[in-house]
Amino acid sequence: MNCSVKNFVQWITVTLLSVWIAACGGGSSVPANLPTVEVPAGNNAIAVTVDRGPTGNSVNRLYTSVTICEPGSSSQCQTINHVLVDTGSTGLRLLASVIRPDLKLNLQLSAQGFPLLNCIQFVDTSFAWGPIAGFDLKLGGKTASTLPTQLIGDPATAALSANCATGLPLNSVASLGANGVLGLSLFKQDCGSNCVTNPRNGYYFRCTTASCTAAQASVASLIQQVSNPVPRFSGDNNGFVLNLPPVDPSGAIRLNGTLVFGIGTQANNQDVPASVLSTSITGRITTVLSGQPLTNSFLDTGSNALFFDATSIPLCTGSEPIRFYCPPTRINRSASMIGTTGATAPVNLAVDNALQLFASPANAVLPTLAGTFGDSQSFDWGLPFFYGRRVFLGIEKETSTVGTGPFYAF
């Protein structure tokens, strides 16, 4: 998976949105009838929500709460809210600053016996850096034991972050727009087999001493790598289903949806989707838009808009570079998604003027927000794609009633 391309869009747009929304100010009363999908019965379902986020200025960002515990403990635990649900990255990454100081950090160690460090670098040179600790992660009734978790912005190792990048560090609630990231991608680890044998993989580093005053490139075994928690559940571990309610094009203050773990494993995840799109080994499908095949396409809840390049749609203008579209009136387009086996799914999309959408600062849910990607071969189907859909993600090499992953289905 090429996280860098996706996150270039995700993090840059969040920064711009924060500026615009803060400038607009204001607010409104909360309506009684919010777009909602009720959490179904079962130990494999949790609630998710789209709201203004922990800083009060986010849009189209999907959050949930996670509970971390010291391995094997049922009492030494902490629940952390406003963790971003991101199908475009892999593994749990939490800001070190939001973790209770009394929780014991079971740091992952390299073969040399020193702490293992993790780097996620983005195309715009922003990055997340920090050591890896093992926690028991609880999501509803499911547990991923001793899950390797990145501690973003850990002060003990922050001085070594230049090994990762020299750009903007995403090491605070303000810069991240969340208290952490729950990466639920199609993949089991953030790097995979390449990091097992190749020390210059760009993802993993190790401290050279116990005091960690320096770091160098390192390998990491699969069990040490920042990992998708779903395959580590004892059951309901072959994928998951995200169910978000439909939203009026004018937007909504917030919405409530559900995340169900497993595909075809319990009564709440037995639906047969109409379209099943197998992906490449890197998680890509093809989107055909205006007759052009965009072969580097993917579904990503971590991106807060639909991102694609269209010279026929005017970009917004302002004092700062703006990557969102601002057509004078709503534009409706039809596209097709094509999986690697040739299966095709038609998809309709709408694009509204972003500046007009931001003029209602109370709305955290904007289904017609879109912008340019900066790559003529890519279509990033961000969170607006998921509104009003029940979307299945099948994890690599795992079988289900829908098929063998990796796949998208809806």
Account of the protein in words:
The chain has helices at residues 3-24, 173-176, 194-197, 354-358, and strands at residues 45-50, 62-69, 77-86, 91-95, 106-107, 116-121, 127-139, 142-152, 180-183, 204-207, 215-217, 239-243, 255-261, 276-278, 285-289, 292-299, 306-308, 331-338, 344-351, 370-371, 378-381, 390-394, 407-409. The chain is built from four helices and 23 strands. Helices cover 9% and strands 32% of the residues. The protein is mainly beta. A hairpin with a 7-residue loop joins β2 (62-69) and β3 (77-86). It has a domain at 29-232: Cathepsin D, subunit A, domain 1 (Beta Barrel). It has a seven-stranded mixed β-sheet with strand order 19-18-15-16-21-17-20, with no helix packed on it. The protein has a six-stranded mixed β-barrel with strand order 2-3-9-4-8-7.
| Helical coverage, percent range | under 10%
CATH topology of the domain at 29-232: Cathepsin D, subunit A, domain 1
Structural class: mainly beta
Uncertain stretches of 5 or more adjacent residues: 1-30
Following the backbone from N to C, one meets helices and strands in this order, namely HEEEEEEEEHEHEEEEEEEEEEHEEEE
Mean pLDDT: 91
Q: Please count the helical segments.
A: 4
Distance between the termini: 21 Å
Q: Strands across the major sheet, in which order?
A: 19-18-15-16-21-17-20
> β content, as a range?
25-35%
- Radius of gyration over C-alpha positions, nearest whole angstrom: 20 Å
What's the overall geometry? globular
Q: Major beta sheet, specifics?
A: 7 strands, mixed
